[in-house]
Specification:
This protein is an all-alpha fold and about 90 residues long. Helix 2 packs across helix 3. The mean pLDDT is about 90. About 65% of the residues lie in helices and about 0% in strands. It has a domain of about 50 residues. Keywords: Coiled coil.
C-alpha cells in the first residue's frame, strides 16, 4: 500500500508541531554526530594506551581482556613489542 501523500498544514497549531518536530530531529542528529565523535576519540585513546602497554610487553591476551576484544583484534590494532605499526613481520 503506498504511503499517503502529505498535504500542507491546515492551521498554525500543525505548523508549530511540524516546526517542533523538525527542531527535535535536528537536535537528535546533532547529538548523534557529537556522540560518534566522542566515541571515536575514546576508542583511539584506548588503542593508544594499548600500544604503550604492548611496547612494555603487557601480554596481548591481557589487553584483549581489558578492552573486551579478542586477541585477533588486539593484534590488528597493536603491533607486537619491538615492531612499529607500519612494519611487516
Amino acid at each position: 500500500m503506498p504511503r499517503p501523500k502529505w498535504v500542507e498544514p491546515e492551521n498554525e497549531e500543525q505548523r508549530r508541531a511540524i516546526a517542533d518536530l523538525e527542531a527535535a530531529v535536528k537536535a537528535f542528529e546533532d547529538a548523534e554526530k557529537q556522540a560518534k565523535a566522542i566515541i571515536d576519540e575514546a576508542r583511539e585513546r584506548v588503542w593508544a594506551a594499548a600500544r604503550v602497554a604492548r611496547k612494555l610487553r603487557v601480554p596481548a591476551r591481557f589487553i584483549a581482556g581489558k578492552t573486551s576484544r579478542g586477541r585477533t583484534t588486539v593484534h590488528r590494532h597493536v603491533p607486537p613489542p619491538g615492531q612499529d605499526a607500519g612494519e611487516q613481520p
